[in-house]
């Protein structure tokens, strides 16, 4: 009987190559997940892999390490809930803010006709910060999603600093502040750190300003 000592080594090598091939297939499948818009998600089957982006309009953290947040499609105003579990990297709560444009890579999950996206912290990234995303027009159109939220928005202060306008000056919102003299920024392009409120006494949206800095 002749024993070939190279046979076990060959089998081991074949096993390693099989595992590596499987990992490469998984990576290829993951990287090829289609990029879809939020309105398209509701028609997908459970477990479908996808990449979706939207504007962050709500965020909640839980003791178990789970973080839930809501993304809005800026064109349709439709939203989707994202359920984010712990990953190797930092949780989204450490690097995302309301108004940021977020990209999420995950899987579709449907429960009682409600569609969500399941992901982990490695599947979440920031495409653009809020000051490059939010506009007065966007806030005015979707104000119910942003009411009570704090964020940074870019615009031009006009009317002695009493209104913040988009750069085209076609849309504006009332601004107030107890801590900042807004008139000194009149006619200037600024970054405003503020919170959105609906003032029922005057039936108007209002930005309550915490700080202002010149843009650039």
Description:
This protein is an alpha+beta fold. The chain has 2 domains: 35-129, OB fold (Dihydrolipoamide Acetyltransferase, E2P) (Beta Barrel); 134-214, OB fold (Dihydrolipoamide Acetyltransferase, E2P). It has 3 helices and 12 strands; from the N terminus they run αβββββββααβββββ. The strands form 2 sheets. A 5-stranded mixed barrel has the order 2-3-4-6-5. A 5-stranded mixed barrel has the order 8-9-10-12-11. A hairpin with a 4-residue loop joins strand 8 and strand 9. The longest helix is centred in the N-terminal third of the chain and has 26 residues, at 6-31. The chain is elongated, with a radius of gyration of 24 Å. The model is unreliable at 1-7 and 21-30 (pLDDT under 50).
Portion of residues in helices?
Answer: 10-25%
- Reading off the top of the CATH hierarchy, the class of the largest domain is best stated as Mainly Beta
Low-confidence stretches: 1-7, 21-30
Q: What CATH architecture label of the largest domain applies?
A: Beta Barrel
Through-space gap between termini? 83 Å
- Range of strand content: 35-45%
State the assembly state of the protein chains. single chain
Question: What structural class results from the helix and strand content?
Answer: alpha+beta
Query: What order do the SSEs take from the amino end to the carboxyl end, as H and E?
Result: HEEEEEEEHHEEEEE
Task: From the 3D structure, determine the CATH topology of the largest domain.
Answer: OB fold (Dihydrolipoamide Acetyltransferase, E2P)
Q: Please describe the biggest sheet, giving its number of strands, its sense, and whether it closes into a barrel.
A: 5 strands, mixed, barrel
CATH superfamily of the largest domain: Nucleic acid-binding proteins
Number of strands: 12
Give the count of helical stretches: 3
Overall geometry: elongated
If strands are numbered along the chain, what order do they take across the biggest sheet? 2-3-4-6-5
